[in-house]
Amino acid sequence: MTERTGPKQIRCQFTLDVDTNPAHDYALVVLRQWLKQQEQCHANDENAVAVSEFNRQIYLSGLFLHLLDSGLPATLADSFGPTQVQLSTLCDQLDLSPRANLGGGESQLPQQLPQQLAQLLQQQQQLQQQLQQQNQQLTEQLQSLQQQLAGAQLSAAVTPSAHRNEPITAGANDSDLPSADTMQKVANVKAKGLW
């Protein structure tokens, strides 16, 4: 047995025939969308980790399917397309591949596996829908708060200038106003030209 210490790096390179294979074309579209989404969500270092994790998960899940049935990954890959990526397609393919070749001997897959997998995938889809709804609600709340903030800032900017043109009116307390005698003295000083 070989010694296994520390992380091992595996590089995988393959080509997609997008001109003749619709599954390959759709895969390229999905991969580009995923990568663009990761670039928007993460910094460069985080993006590299996310891409590495994504590649590892895809590779290991394909290897798992290969161990269950060596033809299953190819069958699923050929079924890949915008209208075929559904839970029912996966369940149909699992039903078409009822045997697994594990360790050289053939064994029957548990009968409940497709149903359990369908339930798990359905739960995952429900969780994703809930998260999308919550994300949508939070986005709407954020937009509402931003609009309120913009309105408040606009209102604050408009209010002082609006008060500049308003006439000064006497309030309920006229004791702060100058008396008629004081006003007469001011008028006399102005008339003499001292102001």
In short:
With 195 residues, the protein is mainly alpha-helical.
Brief descriptors of the model:
195 residues; mainly alpha; 6 helices; elongated
Unreliably modeled segments? 97-108
- Secondary structure tally: strands: 2
State the major sheet.
Answer: 2 strands, antiparallel
Question: Treating each run of at least 4 consecutive H or I residues as one helix, how many helices?
Answer: 6
Alpha-beta classification: mainly alpha
Percent range for helical residues?
55-70%
* Percent range for β-strand residues: under 5%
Description:
By secondary structure, the protein is mainly α. It has helices spanning 22-41, 44-68, 72-78, 87-96, 113-164, 180-192; strands at 99-102, 105-108. The protein has a two-stranded antiparallel sheet. The protein starts with 21 loop residues before the first helix and ends with a helix. The model is unreliable at 97-108 (pLDDT under 50).
